[in-house]
Amino acid sequence: xxxxxxxxxxxxxxxxxxxxxxxxxxxxxxxxxxxxxxxxxxxxxxxxxxxxxxxxxxxxxxxxxxxxxxxxxxxxxxxxxxxxxxxxxxxxxxxxxxxxxxxxxxxxxxxxxxxxxxxxxxxxxxxxxxxxxxxxxxxxxxxxxxxxxxxxxxxxxxxxxxxxxxxxxxxxxxxxxxxxxxxxxxxxxxxxxxxxxxxxxxxxxxxxxxxxxxxxxxxxxxxxxxxxxxxxxxxxxxxxxxxxxxxxxxxxxxxxxxxxxxxxxxxxxxxxxxxxxxxxxxxxxxxxxxxxxxxxxxxxxxxxxxxxxxxxxxxxxxxxxxxxxxxxxxxxxxxxxxxxxxxxxxxxxxxxxxxxxxxxxxxxxxxxxxxxxxxxxxxxxxxxxxxxxxxxxxxxxxxxxxxxxxxxxxxxxxxxxxxxxxxxxxxxxxxxxxxxxxxxxxxxxxxxxxxxxxxxxxxxxxxxxxxxxxxxxxxxxxxxxxxxxxxxxxxxxxxxxxxxxxx
Length: 503
Hints:
Elements: H1 2-12, E1 15-21, E2 25-34, E3 37-47, H2 62-78, E4 87-91, H3 93-97, H4 101-112, E5 117-118, H5 121-135, E6 141-147, E7 152-158, E8 161-168, H6 172-179, H7 187-202, H8 205-208, E9 215-218, H9 221-232, H10 241-254, H11 267-270, H12 273-287, E10 293-294, H13 299-306, H14 316-327, H15 332-348, H16 360-370, H17 382-392, H18 400-411, H19 427-446, E11 459-463, E12 466-470, H20 475-478, H21 480-495, E13 499-502
Parallel strand pairs: 1-4, 4-5, 6-9, 9-10, 12-13
Antiparallel strand pairs: 1-2, 2-3, 6-7, 7-8, 11-12
Helix pairs in contact: 2-4, 5-13, 6-12, 7-12, 10-12, 15-16, 15-19, 16-18, 16-19, 17-18, 18-19, 19-21
Protein name: Guanosine-5'-triphosphate,3'-diphosphate pyrophosphatase
InterPro entries: ATPase_NBD, GppA/Ppx_hydrolase, Guo-5TP_3DP_PyrP, Ppx_GppA_C, Ppx_GppA_N, PyroPPase_GppA_Ppx
Pathway: Purine metabolism; ppGpp biosynthesis; ppGpp from GTP: step 2/2
C-alpha cells in the first residue's frame, strides 16, 4: 500500500493544468507528461457568458458572477490533484473591463485556493499564438485569429515567435448583446455588426497586411463551429469567405435567433454563432484572408506549454508520428522505406500538380509513415482499421482538414479504391489527395519485399491524369512479383477512372 501511495504521489508531479476564465466560457485542460509527450487527460468547458453580465457602467451583475463561482467550485475539486507550481489560472477580456472585477476575483481565488492572473490583451494574444504554434506545425509566417466572448486577438508569427499582435474589444458575446439583442437575425443586424467590426479591424489592418503569411489559423469556437457545419453539409474544405456569406444567409433565413436551426450547428454554439460569424466576415474582408484552417490549440495550450518550455520540439509533426509509431508498433524501417520512395516520386512531379497553400508533402509523409497503423488490429482490412484509428487520434501538428486528407489517403493505400472517400472534399483538394493516394499505392508496391535492397532509378511523369512510371530496361522482367503487382495496380486505378502505365 505504501509503495502504491508513493508511486501515485510521484505521478502527480507530471500533471499540469491551465484554467482560462473567458468572456463566453470557462475552460480547464489537464495534461500528463509521459515519455517526452504531452497527453491531454481531461477537459472541462462551461458556458458562463460572463460578458453578458456587464452593464452600461462596465460592472458585472451578481447573476453572472455567481455562474462563474459555481463553475470554479467544480474546477476546484479537480485541481486538488495538481501541484500548485503546475497550475496556471488566467482571466481575460471581461475581467479586464469590469470595474468590480476585484469582487469576482477575490472570491474566485478563495474557491480555487490559487491566484487568478488578469492578463492583458497583448499577453493573451501571445499565449494564444504559442498554443497554436505548439499544436499546429506552422509553415512560415502564420496569421492567427481568436474570437473570444469580449475580445478578438490577431497575431502574425513565425515558428514559436509572434511578430505582431493586437487585441480588439469586440467579441461574440458583446456583439450579441449590442447588435442582436432584439432576437432577430435580420440582414440589417448582420450589416451593422459587420460594419462595426470592420471599423475596428481597419484601424489595425496595416499592422498585419504587409506580412506575407502562408496560412491563417482560427483558434476559437466560431471557426470550429463553421467547420463542423461545413462537414455536416458535405463540404470538406478550409473556411472561405463564400462559405461565410452562405452561412450568414442561412442565419437570416431562420428569421429569429430562437429559431436558429442550421444543419451541423450544435445547440451549445447557437447563441453566440451569428455575432461571431459577423466578426469573422469582417476579418476576412478587411485582412484579405483567402482561407482559414482550425488550429489544434489556443490560450490554454499556450499556458500549458509555457510551463513546459523544455518540452519544445523543432518539429511537432515528427514527434507526434514517432509516438504513434511506438504506440501502435509500426515497423518504422518499412514506413521509412515507403516514405522515401513516395517522396522521390513527389519531388519529380512538377509544382503545378499541387494547389497553393496545400501541404501535399506533409500529408504524404504522414500517410506514408502511418499507413500500416491498422496492422495493430489485424491484417486483412488493415487499411480500413488505419482509417478508423486516424479518425480519433489527435495528430498534433496537422489541422483538421489535413488530418482528414491523411485519413482519406491511408484508406485507399491498398486493395480496391473507394473513390467515395474523396467525394466530400472541395474539388481543388480532391485532385491533390487523389494524386497523393496514387503515389503512395505505387510506393507500397515497390517496397513489398520489406528490405533495404536498392531500388532502381525510376522516372515518374504525369500528363493530365495519366501517370507514367519508367524503369531501367529489363528491371521489371527480372522482378516478376513487383511486375505482377503493378499490373494489378494498373487495373485498379483504371477501374477508379485513372490511367497508370509503367515500362
